[in-house]
Design a protein that fits this description.
By secondary structure, this protein is an alpha/beta fold. The protein has helices at about 15-30, 70-75, 115-120, 135-140, 165-180, 195-205, 215-220, 225-240, 245-255, 305-315, 335-345, 360-365, 385-390, 415-430, 430-445, 450-470, and strands at about 1-5, 35-40, 55, 75-80, 95-100, 185-190, 210, 240-245, 265, 290-295, 325-330, 350-355, 370-375, 395, 410. The protein has a 9-stranded mixed β-sheet, sandwiched between helices.
Length: about 475
């Protein structure tokens, strides 16, 4: 099976779980001898981490003069899995060709005003930000340029730049690239690549499979961005088959997008096999040896429920003193979260790391006594699997796809902050409970592999290809 795969992030270009999912799934497909051409929208010149990406063939200079031939519109890259988390063996992507087309498609998630300082420090290891320090002071102290505050107000301002136009540009370039590729099926990940998937399918007559990792209703609640919703709706209706990351996501597609349920296949995300790296140093700045750590790791956005985490933190600290709450991530709610911590008077108990990537993610898991995912709407949620893999008991929102497959975690409605606090206290005060959760949840996680997900995706591909052949 030959797959023309369209994505907008892949390690080290990541802003969330989609990049992790693409990494795990693509590597598993390669192990099963599927041939994958993975197309990324990146301007490679000066826009890549040379430690992990090697430019094999540059984009042709004739492309600037209007040459739209397949050889001109894309660069070919090699991904070096060493240094990425989770690491991969040499040759992990031997059946994958990475292509980069010159479309500058930024993350659809707006950066918080404080994320310049936070992300600038992320590559140098974990550094904690004092909520009492202003964002501008944080930037100055770190030696970074002053942050730029994103536009505010109105529906849809969480999307920076003209992403819709860039999605269309990416689609046009993918059509040109497809003329020089041989493939059996098109696999498009999330809305930013749906226009490209549709365009390539029309141009080549090949079957389109779309992979829904998140919907606009997950990201924005009822305040949906109309253009994004329209793109998602066109994509899921035009696709021959749809891969949804949970039954929850399938239900949203059926109820909110009017999709035929028979064309939606639930394929749960996986987690990498193998034990965590035992040699990682444990960073403990500003944390006392007797402190217990409660971890939030994810985008600091409405969807992830950071305000509910902080409300629960306030309640926990009214009953237990030797607890630190770590918020790892960046997003448009970061400044608001820092202000909330200051208003609650718990600034010395809440630490902000900014966006973490690579080995720093595993480091912060190893610090934690309990991981909390208070998401308002989580299509799946890979982070709880990673936490369990690192021996951390998990408290998760009932409004998540991962709650469908992990029984041995404590579950709570995202809005029930009193119950969330009670469960945090129970795990911290009763080590046998944490040990039992870890023991049984780790067995469940071992069954959720990327190889299993890849097998199910291959079956969806074959079914879609058979429909074209009928």
């Amino acid at each position: 099976m030959r797959i023309f795969m369209l994505g907008w992030e892949f390690p080290p270009f990541i802003s969330g779980g989609l990049g992790t999912a693409c990494y795990g799934l693509t590597k598993a497909l390669s192990r099963q001898d599927a041939k994958v051409t993975f197309v990324l929208p990146k301007v490679i010149d000066g826009d890549y981490d040379g430690q992990h990406i090697k430019l094999l063939t540059p984009q042709s200079p004739t492309a600037a003069a209007g040459d739209r031939s397949p050889d001109a519109v894309a660069s070919t890259m090699a991904i070096d899995p060493s240094g990425l988390v989770p690491p991969g063996p040499e040759g992990a992507f031997e059946n994958v060709t990475f292509k980069a087309v010159p479309s500058r498609m930024p993350s659809p998630y707006a950066a918080d005003a404080g994320s310049v300082a936070s992300e600038g420090a992320a590559g140098r290891g974990i550094s904690f930000v004092n909520p009492a320090t202003s964002v501008a002071q944080q930037a100055a102290a770190s030696g970074e340029a002053p942050p730029v505050t994103p536009s505010s107000g109105g529906v849809g301002t969480e999307y920076e730049g003209d992403l819709v136009a860039e999605a269309q540009r990416y689609a046009s370039l993918c059509v040109d690239l497809a003329d020089g590729e041989e493939f059996d099926v098109i696999h498009a990940h999330d809305w930013l690549t749906f226009p490209a998937g549709l365009a390539v399918a029309r141009h080549t007559g090949k079957p389109l499979v779309v992979h829904v990792h998140s919907t606009e209703f997950d990201r924005a609640g009822e305040s949906v961005h109309s253009q994004v919703y329209d793109i998602e709706r066109r994509g899921v209706h035009a696709a021959l088959s749809i891969i949804a990351v949970s039954r929850r996501t399938k239900k949203i597609l059926v109820d909110r997008y009017g999709v035929n349920p028979d064309k939606v296949y639930v394929v749960y995300n996986g987690v990498e096999n193998g034990a965590p790296n035992p040699d990682l140093p444990s960073p403990l700045p500003r944390i006392e040896k007797d402190d217990q750590i409660v971890l939030f790791l994810g985008r600091v956005t409405m969807q992830k429920g950071p305000e509910y985490f902080l409300q629960a933190a306030k309640r926990v600290l009214e009953k237990i003193d030797n607890v630190k709450f770590v918020m790892a991530g960046s997003g448009d709610k970061l400044t608001q979260s820092i202000e909330t911590v200051a208003r609650y008077g718990i600034g010395s108990k809440v630490l902000f790391t900014g966006f973490l990537r690579g080995k720093d993610v595993e480091k912060v898991y190893r610090m934690a006594n309990v991981y909390v995912m208070p998401s308002v709407s989580e299509p799946f949620g890979i982070a709880p699997l990673e936490a369990i893999r690192n021996g951390v008991p998990v408290i998760m929102s009932k409004q998540s796809g991962v709650s469908e497959v992990i029984e041995h975690a404590l579950k709570v409605d995202f809005w029930d902050v009193d119950e969330m606090a009670n469960k945090i206290i129970a795990v911290l005060k009763h080590p046998p409970l944490a040990d039992t959760m870890n023991e049984h949840a780790s067995v469940e996680v071992r069954r959720l592999t990327w190889d299993g997900a890849a097998e199910k995706c291959l079956a969806v591909y074959k079914g879609a290809a058979a429909m074209i052949g009928e």
